[in-house]
Amino acid sequence: MTSWLMGLAIFMVHLLGVLSAVLALMSSRTSQGAIAWIISLITFPYAALPAYWIFGRPRFYGYVSARGERDTVLRRVLARYREQIEPYLADAKIGEVRAVEQLAMMPLTSGNRAELLIDGDATFASLFAGIDAAEEYLLVQFFIVRNDALGLQFKDHLERAAERGVRVYFLYDEIGSRKLGEGYLNDLHDAGVAVSAFNSSRGVRHRFQLNFRNHRKVLVVDGHEGWLGGFNVGVEYLGQHRKHGPWRDTHLKLTGPSVLGLQEAFWEDWHWATGEVLNLSWTPQSTCDDCQNVVIVPSGPADRQETASLLVQQAIHSASERLWVTSPYFVPDQGVQDALRLAAMRGVDVRVMIPERPDHLLVYLSAFSFLPDMLRAGVKVYRYQPGFLHQKVMLIDGHSATVGTINLDNRSFRLNFEITAYVPDRHFAAEVRLMLEKDFADCRRITYDELRDRALWRKLLSRAAYLLSPIQ
After folding, report:
1. Is 202 helix (H, G, I), strand (E, B) or coil?
2. Which residues lie across from 168 on neighbouring strands?
3. Is 190 a catalytic residue?
4. Mean pLDDT, rounded, of the chain
5. For residue 201, what are the contacts with CB-CB under 8 A and spacing of at least 6?
6. What is the C-alpha separation between 246 and 243, in angstroms, rounded?
7. C-alpha angle with apex 243: 239 to 248, nearest 5 degrees?
8. Which residues pair with 389 in a beta bridge?
9. Which residues does residue 417 pair with via DSSP β-bridges, in sequence order?
10. Are 246 and 389 in contact (CB under 8 A)?
11. In whole angstroms, how far apart are CA 259 and each of 77, 87, 265?
């Protein structure tokens, strides 16, 4: 009897391996990934099955279903304010902006003010001032929140807002903020803050979806002011970390109708996490004199297409003079690598800024496997020297720039929920150029010779790390 049960168990494991291989064939993100999963699942399902159901899921299907439910509700809400927002719908005259609108499934709006926030002191002063000024509601979302000096200060501002009658909704990623602690969350709850983890593995069907993360950093105040960018909440983001030292990052404050795009992305995430439909204000407001156009671009593993990767490729292809990119994690897919090389070959000033000091060793090592080809094509790669570089910024010629949460790696392109502000405005692009010029002055340019002359074992290690990049 025991041997019969053992045989049945072995048969079921192999059957599940074959069925999972069929699923991998139909839905894997790349042909290489499909082949690797199929071979592993058929030949050795005992280890491959759990790995596939944790790391191999191509889309966040539970969120897709929730989005369908949410879209029905959202359409009813949008119908109420469509006439109000119509005067702020800007004309996307150039093709690249129309493409961004299509990717974002959100409109280009006018009547916005986009304010660069450079480094931690300026960013958190602005964030805390916004929280303290809230009158009706706060939508707060971060990937990492730490229970340290800055995290406690952040919590105090949220609690005081709730105590004066502001509705406060706080959403965090349970993986990024896994060390936050129950005491911290209980304090917020007791003060009247509505608290929820993103719950990527909510429900029995999605129990093993541990590889999807919500990497967004969003703050919305009363639907009129909003913030997004690279900063999480922890003292290291103020440069108070022994290993990383000074922390170089960029955030963005938005005022105007584009804030409703941030609000919609939060609303969708909150609905997934809690099942609750928030009652918020959807009346656009503009108070700026020198207004800018903005498109908010949410992206994630529930999208029908690879929004983040396509957004980056669109920016590269639209550049004719200059494309400057900063990213702490630079392991782009083949499409982005090819686009960067082609842009450099056609004479575009392509510069990529990455950290000198790594905080993820595999990601750091992976880059060395493909950087020689990029340097040979004319792409200029710089390593930031003073401390850790964490900003996610792109500058396209002199007419557009982006600030957001997207890194140039597989995780941001396909596994993380991200959000980016695309600003097609020459004045804003000039501000970003000045900011990046100062950063490049603090960088060391990588040469082809230094990569060519590395020891063989280092080259082999880099190649092995690159093969793991799809799950990093």
Report:
1. coil
2. 138
3. no
4. 84
5. 207, 208, 209, 210
6. 9
7. 35
8. 248
9. 214
10. no
11. 16, 15, 10
CA 139 to CA 169: how far, in whole Å?
A: 5
The DSSP call for residue 412 is: I
Catalytic residue among 224, 253, 392, 399: 392
| Reported pTM | 0.85
440 contacts 346 by C-beta, under 8 angstroms: no
The question of whether 93 is a catalytic residue gets the answer: no
- The answer to whether the beta carbons of residues 170 and 294 sit under 8 Å apart is no
| Catalytic option among 157, 206, 390, 399 | 390
Catalytic residue among 173, 397, 425, 439: 397
CA angle 29, 351, 262 (to 5 degrees): 60
Q: Both tokens of residue 132?
A: 């303290």
Q: Is 156 one of the catalytic residues? A: no
399 is catalytic: no
Among residues 155, 157, 206, 215, the one annotated as catalytic is 215
What is the model's pLDDT at position 72? 63
CB-CB neighbours of 88 under 10 Å: 21
Four-residue CA torsion sign, 382, 383, 387, 391: positive
Compute the distance between CA of residue 124 and CA of residue 260 in angstroms, rounded to an integer.
Answer: 22
91 in active site: no
Tens digits of per-residue pLDDT, 38-63?
666 777 665 665 666 655 565 555 56
Q: How many residues does the chain have?
A: 472
Mark whether 155 is an active-site residue.
Answer: no
pLDDT digits (tens, 9 = 90+) for 85-115: 777 877 766 667 889 989 988 889 999 999 9
For the chain, the first-to-last Cα distance in angstroms comes to 44
Determine the Cα–Cα distance for residues 136 and 410; give it in Å rounded to an integer.
38
Instruction: Give CA 468 to chain center in angstroms.
Output: 20
